[in-house]
Design goal:
The chain has twelve helices and nine strands. It is an alpha+beta fold. It folds into three domains: about 120 residues, Acyl-CoA dehydrogenase/oxidase, N-terminal domain (Butyryl-Coa Dehydrogenase, subunit A, domain 1), CATH 1.10.540.10; about 100 residues, Butyryl-CoA Dehydrogenase, subunit A, domain 2; about 150 residues, Up-down Bundle (Butyryl-CoA Dehydrogenase, subunit A, domain 3), CATH 1.20.140. The strands form three sheets. It has a four-stranded antiparallel β-sheet with strand order 2-3-7-6, covered by helices on one side. A three-stranded mixed β-sheet has the order 1-4-5. α5 crosses α8, α8 packs parallel to α10 and α8 packs antiparallel against α11. The chain starts with a helix and ends in a 6-residue tail after the last helix. It binds flavin-adenine dinucleotide. The site of flavin-adenine dinucleotide (FAD) has 20 residues, from β1, β3, α11 and α12. Keywords: FAD, Flavoprotein, Oxidoreductase, Transit peptide.
């Protein structure tokens, strides 16, 4: 008789009926549409039908789900978090696909674009008919986007964009790219249709992490867009950082989904696998690993719920999101690596989900602000001194 890690601390009691219902429906979708195929997609480094999958995610109301209007579901932040946890319990690439669509591309347009652009893009994006990406990182500027080189200059009533963006999730699938560029007025955002002349997306190959996710380099070579494509009001890094805070919030939850899957797998394996004539789960060292993993998983979920409730109360601050992202991704990767040891040699096989989750979390540790940058954000808050500028 074993106890599920969620039951040990009574985690399900933290959630409302509606939150549990959302978790169940996301779990049903991933079990049907992704789980049976995702190890193969990871191994091949490509998804079978990403557009079809995006439509299925849209049909369930998961795209831009915490936004209001324009066909979005308008859920609470905690409900959105619960969905992220279930998506990432399947694969971090799947959660990334949804996060970039909803929290980065759609949120940027929803928050900052003109009404005309919102009407143009958001309903199709919410339905999964149109795909978005978010271009902030460049080949030479990741953690310090303030020094980005991509430039937009006025030409009559239009803007001309030149530059390169790197490591862009959904980049070569996208119909619209949110591009952040330097202008004479500071950094500005643009909703760029990807079929505009001069725009190209090159899929990045040879990744050993997030292999069931499309990542691309974007090239902008004299891309001409009308003034209506520019986000009218926001200037400076406030624009992209507001979007990153949304996506990082989803990662706080998502990372615990990856951790849960690894923990469940290790727990099952520990009671089934026998060495020296008894289950390896009977050895104290294995029990200590499972107990420590469960402790960190439980604390991570509690933190996610706490931040979710703060966000729903309109009180969540960016440094609190940093705290959650830093802790939960760091602990999730640790849980996956420990789970891997419990599975022995089987731990490195794609027959089990553990190594896939561990490898995926290497990307999650780096994107949306590296573990180091979030550490320094907390350090700055604690000491009043900025160590990174
Ligand atoms: P760098 O900034 O060069 O950092 C390298 C190392 O130096 C890191 O350890 C970093 O923490 C450290 N470092 C840098 N500055 C400091 C400092 N001041 N003090 C201490 N340490 C420091 N970007 C997008 O815009 N859109 C996307 O959709 C997107 N998707 C991604 C998908 C994947 C799979 C990956 C891997 C990345 C993605 N990214 C995306 C890019 C990601 O956000 C960047 O990789 C990240 O911000 C780090 O930038 P960098 O890789 O250039 O590393």
């Amino acid at each position: 008789m074993t106890t599920h890690p969620d039951e040990l601390a009574g985690l399900s009691g933290l959630f409302t009926d509606q939150e549990r219902a959302i978790a169940d429906s996301v779990r049903a979708l991933t079990a049907r549409e992704v789980e049976p195929y995702v190890a193969d997609w990871f191994e091949r480094g490509e998804l079978d039908d990403p557009r079809g999958l995006m439509r299925k995610l849209g049909a369930l109301g998961l795209l831009g789900m915490h936004l209001d209007g324009y066909g979005c579901a308008g859920t609470t932040a905690t409900e959105y978090g619960v969905a992220c946890l279930e998506l990432e319990a399947c694969d971090s690439g799947l959660r990334s696909m949804v996060s970039v669509q909803g929290s980065l591309a759609m949120y940027a347009i929803w928050k900052w674009a003109s009404e005309e652009e919102k009407q143009r893009w958001l309903p199709g994006m919410a339905a999964g008919e149109l795909i978005g990406c978010f271009g902030l990182t460049e080949p030479d500027h990741g953690s310090d986007p303030a020094n980005m080189r991509t430039r937009a200059r006025r030409d009559g009533a239009d803007w001309i964009l030149d530059g390169r963006k790197m490591w862009i999730t959904n980049g070569s699938l996208a119909d619209v790219a949110v591009i952040w560029a330097q202008t004479d007025e500071g950094v500005r955002g643009f909703a760029v249709p990807t079929d505009t002349v001069g725009f190209a997306a090159n899929t990045i190959e040879h990744k050993m992490s997030l292999r069931a996710s499309v990542t691309a380099e974007l090239v902008l070579d004299g891309v001409r867009v009308p003034d209506s494509s520019a986000f009218p009001e926001v200037r400076g890094l406030r624009g992209p950082l507001s979007c990153l805070s949304e996506a990082r919030y989803g990662i706080v939850w998502g990372a615990m989904g990856a951790a849960r899957t690894a923990l469940e797998c290790a727990q099952r394996y520990a009671v089934e696998r026998e060495q020296f004539g008894r289950p390896i789960g009977g050895f104290q060292l294995t029990q200590q690993k499972l107990a420590d993993m469960t402790l960190e998983y439980t604390k991570g979920v509690l933190l996610a719920v706490h931040l979710g409730r703060l966000k729903d109360a309109g009180a969540l601050r960016p440094e609190q999101v940093s705290l959650g992202k830093l802790n939960n991704v760091r602990e999730a990767i640790d849980i996956c690596r420990t789970a891997r040891t419990i599975l022995g040699a089987n731990g490195i096989s794609l027959e089990y989900p553990v190594i896939r989750h561990a490898n995926n979390l290497e990307s999650v540790l780096t994107y949306e602000g590296t573990v180091e940058m979030h550490t320094l954000i907390l350090g700055q808050k604690l000491t009043g001194q900025s160590a990174f500028q």
